Amino acid sequence: MNLKSLASRLRAVWMLLLVGIILTIASPVFLTSTNLLNVGLATSVAALLAVGQTYVIILAEIDLSVGAALGFSAVVTAQILRSDGLLPALAAGVAVGVAVGLINGLLVTKARMPSFIATLATMSVLGGLSLQLTSGNPVAVTDYTFQGIGQNRLAGIPVPVLIMLVVFAVFGFVLARTRYGRFVYATGDNAEAARLSGIRTQRVKVLAFVISGVLAALAGFILTARLSTAEPTAGTGLELEAIAAVIIGGTSLAGGRGTLLGTLVGALVLGVIDNGMNLLDVSPFLQDVVKGLVILLAVFLDRNLDALRGLVTRRSGPGDAASSSTTPELARQ
Amino acid sequence: MNLKSLASRLRAVWMLLLVGIILTIASPVFLTSTNLLNVGLATSVAALLAVGQTYVIILAEIDLSVGAALGFSAVVTAQILRSDGLLPALAAGVAVGVAVGLINGLLVTKARMPSFIATLATMSVLGGLSLQLTSGNPVAVTDYTFQGIGQNRLAGIPVPVLIMLVVFAVFGFVLARTRYGRFVYATGDNAEAARLSGIRTQRVKVLAFVISGVLAALAGFILTARLSTAEPTAGTGLELEAIAAVIIGGTSLAGGRGTLLGTLVGALVLGVIDNGMNLLDVSPFLQDVVKGLVILLAVFLDRNLDALRGLVTRRSGPGDAASSSTTPELARQ
Amino acid sequence: SRGGGSTATGGKAASGKKDATMIMSTLNNPFFVSVKNGAQAQSAKQGLKLAVQNADNSDATALNLSTTAISKQVGVLILDPVSSQSATSAVNQANSSNIPVMAFDRKPSGGKLTCFVGYDAVEAGRNAADALAKSLDGKGKVAEIQGILGTNVAQDRSKGFEEEIAKYKGITVVAKQSAGFDRAKALNVMTNVLQAHSDIDGVYAANDEMAMGALSALKARNLAGKVELVGNDGISDALAAIASGQMAATNAESPYALGQKVSSLASDILAGKQVDTEETLHGKLITKDNVKEYAKYLVGLGDTADVPSSLR
Amino acid sequence: MRIELADVHKSFGDNHVLRGVGFQIAPGEVLAMAGENGAGKSTITRIVSGAHQPDSGRILIDGTPVVLKDPQAAMAHGIEVIYQEFQQNLFPHLSVAENMYVLDRERRFGRVLVAKRRMVEAAEAALQKLDVHLDVRRPVSGLNVAERQMVEIAKAMTHEPSLLILDEPTAALDERESERLFTQVRRLRDAGVSVIYISHRMDEVFDLADRIVVLRDGRVTLDDAVEDLETRQVVTAMVGEGVDDFYPKERNATDQVVLETDGVTGPDFHGVDVQVRAGEVLGIGGVVGCGRSTLLRALFGLEPMTGGSVTIDGSPVRVRSPREAIESRIAYLSPDRQAEGLCGALSVEANVSLASLHRFTGVSGVVRRAGERTETGAVMTDLRVRAASPAMAVGSLSGGNQQKALFAKWVMAGPRVLLMDEPTRGVDVGAKTEIYRIINKLTADGVAVVLVSSDLPELVAMSDRVVVMREGRIVTELTGDRVNEQSILEHALVGAA
Lengths: 333, 333, 312, 497
Ligand SMILES: Nc1ncnc2c1ncn2[C@@H]1O[C@H](COP(=O)(O)OP(=O)(O)OP(=O)(O)O)[C@@H](O)[C@H]1O
Ligand SMILES: Nc1ncnc2c1ncn2[C@@H]1O[C@H](COP(=O)(O)OP(=O)(O)OP(=O)(O)O)[C@@H](O)[C@H]1O
Ligand SMILES: [Mg+2]
Ligand SMILES: [Mg+2]
Prior knowledge:
The complex is a heterotetramer, with 2 copies of chain A, 1 copy of chain C and 1 copy of chain D. By secondary structure, chain A is mainly alpha-helical. Chain A has a domain at 45-270. Chain A has helices at residues 3-26, 33-58, 66-84, 86-109, 115-134, 144-151, 159-177, 179-189, 191-196, 201-227, 238-248, 260-279, 284-313, 318-332, and strands spanning 139-140, 153-154, 157-158, 229-230. In chain A, the strands form 2 sheets. In chain A, strands 1-4 form a two-stranded antiparallel sheet. A two-stranded antiparallel sheet of chain A has the order 2-3. The radius of gyration of chain A is 20 Å and the shape is globular. The two termini of chain A are 21 Å apart. Chains A and B meet through helix 5, helix 9, helix 11, helix 13 and helix 14 of A and helix 5, helix 9, helix 11, helix 13 and helix 14 of B. One magnesium ion (MG) is lined by residues 292-293, 335, 421, 452 of chain D.
């Protein structure tokens, strides 16, 4: 978008490189192509959720329902796959995603509910529906074509990784280069000004929630195909993972700022941490500790690199630090 | 604070009454004093977390670490209780709460990290530490006095309920009537304007996180005493319950607005829903669905009661709806 | 039956009550769902009004649910404790309200139980260790995939497994990672473990859900059936995997049978009959040799949901 | 375009703001709208722009009744608005160019995809017309108040409007920029565009308008061609009484130096030496970007000071934060009341007492509400803050009343030094006079005042002494008769582009 966001992207990339270099030294296996593809594969599901989440967060909203939406659309897809075949199943899964997104979007815009609580409630509803629909049992998937979405490779690259890259490219392009993308930034930056400027801010928001819902369904396909099973509780907790990826990637919860490239890097940072800890056989009790500390370090560097650089070149005074720390609030209107 | 917030408190009370009336009709047991005290008892732990969360959310921040802080301080307290007795144990538990709050506060202010990701990371760290400290095993508590915190009654009222009421009274008073409370509202509404008025906004925030940490420790005492055991994973998920209570109680995630009375009512609404579904033997899979729907309804009514009333008295046009929906943004500057 | 010696009667059961509340530690797991199904099927047969509640793995929720059930004066309170220690409060409360209380799966560490019925989780870990060792002929490198840390089952199964596997000098545990009883997590964790230890010979997963996730990871590397995989529980997918030779064994603990047992005990208590105070159920090691037989046994119980269609 | 309002009513809750407003504008006419703070001018603006709906009444465009249900509907009729508050117009994190073409209704820069380079070029060209030179790729958050105002104006001009509404556009502009704006307004008028121009500056109103409508308590109290009117009549129609003396300046300066700076240097100013005496008002003149605002911010601890020293009452002070400034009894009235002045959701009362709350709290920290209410009430009455209730949210006051509430906060803090940047921005003539009286009262009590204002008559009338800044340095000091608009402008502009 502009220089500032470019810099923040690059910063996230630095973090990724830092973690990557440490792991390359610590584990001989880390920097092999199979392992890196594993990271991509493990990241793909949360990363897809993070794409929609980025749109929603740039709009100064949040979507906590993505994990549950993933689970619900996964079980619906799997059940229809058993009874009616591939295409109806895929269509039904996408329809669930659209419906969930529409409902979230309308609750936030028309019913004027804070997105945090609205999507927390839909998360609860969808989680319950998934269990109800399946009586709590996983739904096995034997369709060979469908499994391919998760298990095949194209030119040596796992299909989920390809899907992830295509989705990031397409939605990144939409965000950065289209009118709709500009409306997303403008509405998130200052919803009132956007409305008065003639932007249909409610539609912009509803569409973002729909994107989030559809990508949750797509993520559900991948996860189901990888496991050959749809689990009603499959997405539990993935919403926090996705949100963390978005924020680590430099998008501000206050809205108006962020890039999809940052989100991709954020998702990869999280994936690399998990992968690295498994490779190094870090004690499972300590994994949460390490993960938390690495996230803290990453975000700390991201937010303070300028200030730290300033310290070195002695350009910054107390006023600078204070004024930049208040920018997010200023921006909130 | 002002008329508007008073009205919103009352609205939350209406919701509570509505749910209560329905349950009184549906279940003969609901409106008995033992059952109502059960609701109070069941609510007390999440409600304490919601008190600190209210401060933090009015400051336009969020504290996701409260559940993990509860668990960590609980296991520390229980371990020291076994080795060194009651007072050192309580002191250690409180010290953990203070330390967690300080760390969160400094991460958000000095290290300028978004509170969502900072407290998500501390949540992960604390969760891991609890497991590490206990090797994943619960720590039994046999101290009779300590158990009394959770299991005794005073004048027929369970001690946790009394503690909850005292905490709400004290912190409600602080928020509504003291200088610090005023600073919390001002900083949450417009941190820059507050800073220019001479308020040390960073201290205000740090103190709020400390309050949140200490109340998490207190909630940990109660839970441990009730269960006669400290579980490393005891607080998991309670942060979302607490945040939901705060928002249902009318506090805005955008900051600057909210009351503790609202939070108490919000927590009770959630407690009553749970209690009611159990009394009515709602199928466990459907409970999540019902709970989500009731939350949606409650918040919808809370946010739209004025507009609905306007529809009835025919005073309001479409533009009004729009303008009141934008008031929060306008008000935030 | 095989349990402990003493017996007890259900106190005030003669009051003619016909209802019971069963508080499950979780329902986000097919094992517990099947327990619930078994219990409900059996109650329907015996005319017992059974309410099932879900504590969602939270001690606090479990306690709150118990308190509510006790103030409703249910005929029998049935607990599936989230953890042994934390269930004590609920048992004590029920005791002082003279409500008969029974527990299954995990035994509360205090209070007076009318009866307890359950599988031995430490033993489950041991059995799995023995089965794994046997299929590896006592030597090789293995990985352990643990459940949700901090839960009783995860702790006990891990303890049993580690104690037992240590007895086999030829076997080294090269990786020990948690996948939270979750299939998708196990897939990622196992993929990474295979990356670090490509020469692995065997895997123990603390439940079959994770075993299935691990199996997906093995399949992706064409190692299914080559790396010995042992799980716990005996869910339908695991039975199918054993039948097809992709999995070596599982320590099956029929949840449906457990549920049935719980309901019939509750009915006995309400009817004032004598019941054993303690009944430990033992898991059954299922391998390719006996998987058909076990499937037949389950179908006989009426538990078709836990039998893969290929074995019905 | 001919637009007519007939019997328009609007209430916010119990506050009946518009009580039957009616007037019309002809094509190619500039209609000036004047009225006290809170009279309802901005509310009319928002109704015509589709942002608010009237409770009753009609709007006719070229004789046909229309319903302007949202901003899009108004825009479809070619209605463009420059709102009073920046927050209603701009996107801080978007670039200047994106701000200007955010909607791009005509899809000049692509139907779906955005042609960024062409957009940047168009934005540069549009600003050029206003003689504004900015890097249009920079985010708006880096601009100062005047620059933002110019961007807003440019944004409204990007569409060829048939009705342009400007709600106090010059409140943040200096003479030069205002003049450029007027040139554009006249150009549009000559092209047949209708203009509604809202201002509290009578000279501008008479300079620009063809007709004047005065609003008082939600009713039109005067509607006449400008040739038939005198300033006096307009003011009387606004405030209900004659204002004889706009600038009731009292000379209270003493010899005792309160604030002294010695060679202070900061981001946009260098080697500034000023002395302000007790009871004195020191005006600072200069054009946009001369560094005077930054100087004030630095004195209040909001910008780093890299050199020089500051003394107050003879003792050196080092101010690194607003808090330290307040402890040294320095007060600062920010020109940006939205971002830096008020807590919008808090009550008027809580805002006014915010900087002096310690006076109403003991060691316990409990606020003595009664004392607080009495004192804030007194200050608010003095300053004529019009609020339906002191407990209402300050954000729902009219713009001018918000400004007065902000002023009240600093009066109440009892400062020794009062730094004011555009203190009467958006304040009506009657209330301005009140603010000047308050300044007199403060100086009589020995407060040292520094006044930065782009309202030159105000600066001339209210200052005892004026220093003029150019490119971050003080270029001259004017006293006595030399304090006049002519010489301030001369010194401010010499050598400037
Ligand atoms: N959104 C709102 N909610 C409640 N009251 C409002 C709102 N907007 C305006 N008002 C009230 O309407 C009245 C008129 O305000 P308006 O902004 O139209 O005045 P104005 O004539 O533009 O004043 P100024 O010269 O100070 O800008 C004021 O009393 C104000 O408090
Ligand atoms: N927050 C900011 N970020 C970046 N640049 C700024 C900022 N504020 C001011 N500037 C720049 O600093 C320079 C000095 O601005 P300053 O506000 O001191 O001028 P001024 O003479 O007081 O103008 P005015 O009379 O309009 O208030 C301007 O070029 C402006 O663009
Ligand atoms: Mg106005
Ligand atoms: Mg200025």
